[in-house]
Amino acid sequence: MTESRHIEFIDSLRGLPTETEWFEFKGSYYEPRLLGEYLSALANSACLASQHRGYLVFGIDDVTHEVVGTRFDPYSVKAKGNQGLLPWLAAGLRPNTGFETHIVDHPDGRIVLFEVGPAREQPVSFYGTEFIRVGSSKTELRKHPEKARALWTRGHDWSGEVCEGATLIDLDPGAVAKARELFLVKHPSQAAEVAGWDDLTFLNKAKVLKQGAVTNSALILLGRSESATLLSPALVKLSWILKDDKNKELDYEHFGPPFLLAGDRLQNRIRNLIVRVLPSGTLFPHEITQYDPWVIREALYNCIAHQDYGLHGRIVVVEFPDRVLLANVGNFLPGDIETVIQQDAPQVIYRNPFLVDAMVELNMIDTQGGGIKRMFEMQWQRSFPLPDYDLTELQRVKVNISGQILDERYTRLLMERADLDLGQVILLDRVQKRQHISRGDHRLLKAAGLVEGRYPNLMVAGVVARATGDTGRHIRDRGFDKQYYLDLILALVREHGPVIRREVDEVLVPKLPDRLTEKQKRRKVHNLLQELRRSGKIMNHGTRSHPRWILLEPPIT
């Protein structure tokens, strides 16, 4: 726009009776972080309002809409770490839909105009937090899930776009043949019809093509390896990496399309050893593989379906001796795992709707069955630790599938108790992994007699330990009564005093509960010594930094 057009446009905004959700007036400059939050909110609101831009205007009173002018200079103001304001704002907006800054010499005063592009396909965040305008107020998007869902469903679906220049020749014949097999598993009643379909008809029916044209999804699932270049700048890569217990890389392989065959190729790579579990009351071990093939395959297909291919990241599968880590780029749309498991319903929003539909038709995933919930149930049925989802990293979803038994009591419990529900198993799984659970969850487990101990240092309860035949481990976890430890110290000091702290630790630390850390155990010993000192039973005959404990004889009466 020219200067005059900017003035004309600003006056048109001033002429509106109130601010809308896609533009905001400010009389004076706000600090950098608030400015960035407004850009995020305006970008997201402009998308929902079907506007080409969102606008933040400085130098106008937000009540009267009068021009009051501003001395704010966006080109000289510094942001965090003495960075320039504009590059700092640009670095914080993810994805950056583009914003421009204009200084407008309005006849009534100096105005600074920010215009930001609308969100496309996903919400715009500012340094990890997404914002939205509700009426004339800025707030976090997470408080308005209906608006978040709408943002994810706006715009085009890249996975359903036709790939210019691609033809059926770019599809892998082996992958197409495998697709026919999987389609028949999903639709067995159509076997006779499918036999008479040529590839074009079949792929249209399977929702892989779009009216005969090759889509991005078709190349992802069925494309020849060299067809990945047709999808550029999107990256369609899968990397398998083998590491030892010291995180040293031992081997690797990179896969391109066709991703329909990636599951089989990955299964051939992952070592799946036999684990032996000895249930209580039997001399015969229960043998089971480290990983259930269905669980690994489901986790991989989730990565393929929900990958944000526009972020130019690859799907990564890292195999460690005791676990397999699978990761894809893109935020986890449902927000948290608990919601997915509890709602037990098809997911409302998908990042790649066309790709997901094609994978459903080819029996790769099932949007109706709740794949993530079934993964948890499969691990439960195998008496293995449950999947661990890590959603802490921005634009990345990671899941660890454990290939070893972490706590024999937990494993035997799942093998022998059929009365637990999935919610209880998930909480017990966190207890065995020493992960935090809320006080409310603690009360639920305690009421069911499944845990004991002082919150938050919990352990499997004695009744469960007896049911699983692991009472010895339970005693080690629980420890003994406090008086037992006090008597030990008194006996040590009486027979060998004066004693130094190291000698006290050597006697007590091995007898303290296994659930305590080394630091917690040494703090416990310190507290016991101080209790005996305060009660007048022992005395420090050394210094504070180098104590030497002696017994105080009771006074003669």
What does this structure look like?
There is one protein chain. About 1% of the residues have low confidence. The protein folds into 5 domains: 153 residues, Methyltransferase, Cobalt-precorrin-4 Transmethylase, Domain 2 (2-Layer Sandwich); 73 residues, no CATH class; 165 residues, 2-Layer Sandwich (Heat Shock Protein 90); 57 residues, no CATH class; 70 residues, Orthogonal Bundle (Arc Repressor Mutant, subunit A). Helix 8 crosses helix 12 and helix 10 packs antiparallel against helix 13. It has 557 residues and is of the alpha+beta class.
Topology of this structure?
Layout: H1 3-14, E1 23-26, H2 32-48, E2 54-58, H3 85-92, E3 93-94, E4 99-106, E5 109-116, E6 125-126, E7 129-134, E8 137-140, H4 145-153, H5 173-186, H6 191-195, H7 199-205, E9 209-210, E10 213-214, H8 216-222, E11 238-243, E12 249-255, H9 262-269, E13 274-277, E14 286-289, H10 293-306, E15 315-319, E16 323-329, H11 337-343, H12 353-361, H13 371-381, E17 388-390, E18 396-402, H14 408-416, H15 422-432, H16 439-447, E19 451-452, E20 459-460, H17 462-467, H18 471-478, H19 482-496, E21 499-500, H20 501-508, H21 518-534, E22 538-540, E23 548-551
Parallel strand pairs: 1-2, 11-15
Antiparallel strand pairs: 2-5, 3-6, 4-5, 6-7, 7-8, 9-10, 11-12, 13-14, 15-16, 16-18, 17-18, 19-20, 21-23, 22-23
